[in-house]
From TrEMBL, chain A:
Family: Belongs to the binding-protein-dependent transport system permease family.
PROSITE patterns: ABC_TM1 (PS50928)
Membrane topology qualifier: Multi-pass membrane protein
Lineage: Bacteria, Bacillati, Bacillota, Bacilli, Bacillales
Stretches that traverse the bilayer: 12-34, 66-90, 102-126, 146-163, 206-226, 258-279
Domain of life: Bacteria
Source species: Fictibacillus terranigra
Pfam families according to UniProt: BPD_transp_1 (PF00528)
Domain ABC transmembrane type-1: 68-279
Localization in the cell: Cell membrane
Protein name as catalogued: Sugar ABC transporter permease
TrEMBL record, chain B:
Record organism: Fictibacillus terranigra
Keyword field: Cell membrane, Membrane, Transmembrane, Transmembrane helix, Transport
InterPro entries in the cross-refs: MetI-like (IPR000515), MetI-like_sf (IPR035906)
Alphabetized Gene3D superfamilies for the sequence: MetI-like
TM ranges: 12-32, 78-100, 112-136, 142-163, 184-206, 245-264
Subcellular location: Cell membrane
Full protein name: Carbohydrate ABC transporter permease
Length: 293, 276
C-alpha cells in the first residue's frame, strides 16, 4: 500500500517532465522521421512519400557538404581560440588576492550579450569607414572585406563566439587552478623544476578535468552556431559559414521544404552525435594515455 | 603559477585589468556609439561629441522608416522571458524533487531519460515543434514562445544534483511534523538551495532573453516581436541608421546586465558550487 502511494506521488511530481517530454520531444522526434520521407512544403495540404529521396538529395547538396565541413572548420578555429583566451584570463586572474568579485563579474559580462547585439557591434566595428579599416588602409594599405572573404568571415564569427564564452570558461578553468594544491608547486620549486616543465608536468595534468569540461562545452557550441552567422553572413560567402542550423533554417523556412529540411536535420543530428561521441572518447583516451585522469 | 610573489603582483594586476578592459570594450563601444553624434558613429574608436538623437529617433519611430514598436517589443521580451523562466524554474524544482527525493518505480528510468534528452541534438526537433505550435493554434502568440521553453532539462539536472546532496533526515523530520511534499519543497529544499537558484535563474533568463531563432519563427505580427527579434529584423533596414541601432542594442543589453549585477554576489557563491 505504501509503495503504491509513493509511486503515484513520484509520477505526479515528475508529470511536468512526462508531459513536456511527450509533446516537445517524443512527438516531434517521430514526426521528424515521418517528415523526412515526404516532400511536404510546409503549406500545401498534399504531399507524397518519397522514400529516401530527400536523403539522397541532401547527401549530394552543396549546402549539406558545406555544413559538414564548416562545423569542423569552426572547431579548428573557434575551439583553440576560446581555450587559449580563457586560459590566459584564468592564468591572469587566479590567485590574485584582491578584486576577485570584480574580475569574476566583469569577465562574465560578455556571456550576457545577445548574438544579435554582438553581431551588430562587430559589423559596425568592421564597416568600411570604421577606425579599424581606415587604420589598415592608411597604414598598411590593406583593404579587408571582413565578411566577404570566406576565411575572415569564419574568423570574425569565431572571435565573436570566443568573446562571449571566454569569461565563462575562464571561470571553470580558474576553479580548476584553485583545486591544485599549492604544496605541489613548492615541492617542485625545491626540486628545481623550471616554468615550462611545471606547466606541462604539473599544471596541465591537474587542470585536465577542467580543461576537458571546457573542451567538450566549446565543441558542443560549434554544432549549434546560428545567430551570428544569420546576422552577419547568411551562411556565405559561398557557403563558407553555412552551419547546420543555418542550412536547416534556410531549407525549412525560406525554401519551405519541410520534408527535405527534416532529412537534413536528421543527418545533422547523427553527425553531431557521432562526432561528439568520437571526440569525447578521443579526449578521454588522450588524457588516460598521458596519465592525467 | 605558485603563490604570487609581491613584485610580480603589480604586473599581474595590470595584465588582468588590461584583459578586463579588452573584454568589456565592445560594450563600451556600443554605449558610446549610442550617444555619439551621428557623423561619428562607427567612425571613431572613442567618439567625442555626444547627443541623445539616436534614442529620440528610435523611440519616436524615426523619420525615414515607419514607426517601430520598440517599447512594445521590450515588454514582449519581458513577458516571454519572465513567463518562460518562471515555468522552467517551477517545473525544474518539482521534477528534480521527484527525481532526487521521492522513492518510486521508474525513477532511474526517468533520470536516464533526462540525461539522454539533454545530450540529444535538439536541432532535429525544430521543424516538427514549429508544426505542433501551429496545430495547437498558438502561432503568433506569447504561448508559442513560452510553452516549448517551459521546462529546462539543464535546470532539472542541476536541481536534481543539488537536492541529492541535501540529507534525507531534514525531510523525514519535516514529515514527522506533518509537512506535505509541497511544504518540504518550499520550506526546506528551496531555502537550502538559494545560491544555485540564483545561478539557474540567471542562466535561464539570459538565455531566454537573447533567444533568436525560435522567437523569430513562431511570431509574425509586428506587435508580438521580442526586442531581440525586432533588432535582428532591423539589422538590414536600419543599416543606414547605426546610431539608433546602437541605442536599441543598449536597451536590449542593459536590463540583463542590471539583473546580473543585482544578483552578482549570490551568483558568485552559486557558481562556486556549480563548478565543483
Amino acid at each position: 500500500m505504501r509503495t503504491r502511494h509513493n509511486n503515484r506521488l513520484g509520477w505526479l511530481f515528475a508529470s511536468p517532465y512526462l508531459l513536456y517530454g511527450l509533446i516537445f520531444f517524443l512527438i516531434p522526434l517521430g514526426w521528424s522521421f515521418y517528415l523526412s520521407i515526404t516532400d511536404w512544403n510546409l503549406i500545401a495540404p498534399v504531399f507524397h512519400h518519397v522514400g529516401f529521396e530527400n536523403f539522397m538529395k541532401a547527401l549530394k547538396s552543396p549546402g549539406v557538404h558545406a555544413a559538414f565541413i564548416v562545423t569542423f572548420k569552426f572547431m579548428i578555429v573557434f575551439v583553440p581560440m576560446v581555450i587559449a583566451s580563457s586560459l590566459v584570463v584564468a592564468l591572469a586572474v587566479h590567485g590574485l588576492p584582491r578584486f576577485k568579485g570584480l574580475f569574476l563579474i566583469g569577465f562574465f559580462l560578455p556571456y550576457l550579450a545577445s548574438g544579435v547585439v554582438s553581431s551588430f557591434i562587430v559589423k559596425g566595428f568592421l564597416s568600411y569607414n570604421s577606425p579599424v579599416n581606415k587604420f589598415l588602409r592608411g597604414t598598411f594599405s590593406l583593404d579587408v572585406n571582413w565578411l566577404g572573404t570566406p576565411f575572415s568571415a569564419l574568423l570574425v564569427v569565431s572571435v565573436i563566439m570566443a568573446w562571449k564564452f571566454t569569461g565563462y570558461y575562464a571561470l571553470i578553468l580558474t576553479s580548476g587552478f584553485e583545486s591544485i594544491n599549492k604544496e605541489i608547486y613548492e615541492a617542485a620549486d625545491i626540486d628545481g623544476v623550471n616554468g615550462w616543465q611545471r606547466f606541462w608536468k604539473i599544471t596541465l595534468p591537474l587542470l585536465y578535468p577542467a580543461l576537458f569540461t571546457t573542451l567538450i562545452l566549446s565543441i558542443g557550441v560549434t554544432f549549434g552556431i546560428f545567430t551570428e552567422v544569420y546576422q552577419l553572413t547568411g551562411g556565405g560567402p559561398n557557403f563558407a559559414t553555412n552551419t547546420w542550423q543555418m542550412e536547416i533554417y534556410k531549407q525549412a523556412f525560406q525554401n519551405l521544404s519541410a520534408g527535405y529540411a527534416s532529412s537534413v536535420a536528421l543527418i545533422a543530428s547523427v553527425v553531431t552525435f557521432i562526432s561528439i561521441f568520437i571526440i569525447r572518447k578521443f579526449l578521454e583516451m588522450w588524457g588516460k594515455r598521458n596519465g592525467w585522469t | 603559477m605558485a603563490g604570487p610573489k609581491k613584485e610580480s603582483l603589480t604586473i599581474r594586476y595590470i595584465m588582468a585589468f588590461l584583459l578586463l578592459f579588452i573584454m568589456v570594450f565592445p560594450y563600451l563601444y556600443m554605449v558610446l556609439n549610442s550617444f555619439a553624434d551621428w557623423n561619428q558613429v562607427d567612425r571613431k574608436l572613442i567618439p567625442d561629441s555626444f547627443s541623445l538623437r539616436s534614442y529620440e529617433w528610435l523611440l519616436s519611430g524615426g523619420q525615414a522608416a515607419e514607426p517601430r514598436p520598440w517599447i512594445r517589443a521590450f515588454f514582449n521580451s519581458l513577458i516571454v522571458s519572465t513567463g518562460s523562466t518562471a515555468l522552467m524554474m517551477v517545473t525544474g524544482i518539482v521534477v528534480a524533487y521527484a527525481l532526487a527525493k521521492l522513492q518510486f518505480r521508474g525513477r532511474n528510468f526517468l533520470n536516464n531519460a533526462v540525461l539522454f534528452q539533454m545530450f540529444f541534438p535538439a536541432i532535429i526537433l525544430l521543424v516538427p515543434t514549429f508544426l505542433i505550435i501551429q496545430r495547437f493554434g498558438l502561432y503568433d502568440s506569447y504561448w508559442a514562445m513560452i510553452l516549448p521553453k517551459a521546462l529546462s532539462l539543464w535546470a532539472v539536472f542541476m536541481y536534481t544534483n543539488f537536492f541529492r546532496a541535501i540529507p534525507d533526515t531534514f525531510i523525514e523530520a519535516a514529515k514527522l511534523d506533518g509537512a506535505s511534499d509541497w511544504q518540504i519543497i518550499f520550506r526546506i529544499m528551496l531555502p537550502m538551495s538559494k545560491s544555485i537558484t540564483i545561478v539557474v535563474f540567471l542562466f535561464l533568463f539570459m538565455e531566454r532573453w537573447t533567444e533568436l531563432l525560435w522567437d523569430m519563427l513562431v511570431v509574425k505580427s509586428d506587435n508580438m516581436l521580442t526586442l531581440n527579434v525586432l533588432l535582428s529584423q532591423m539589422f538590414g533596414p536600419y543599416g543606414g541608421y547605426p546610431g539608433p541601432m546602437y541605442a536599441a542594442s543598449v536597451i536590449l543589453t542593459v536590463p540583463i546586465i542590471i539583473l546580473f549585477l543585482f544578483f552578482a554576489k549570490k551568483f558568485k557563491e552559486g557558481m562556486q558550487f556549480t563548478l565543483k
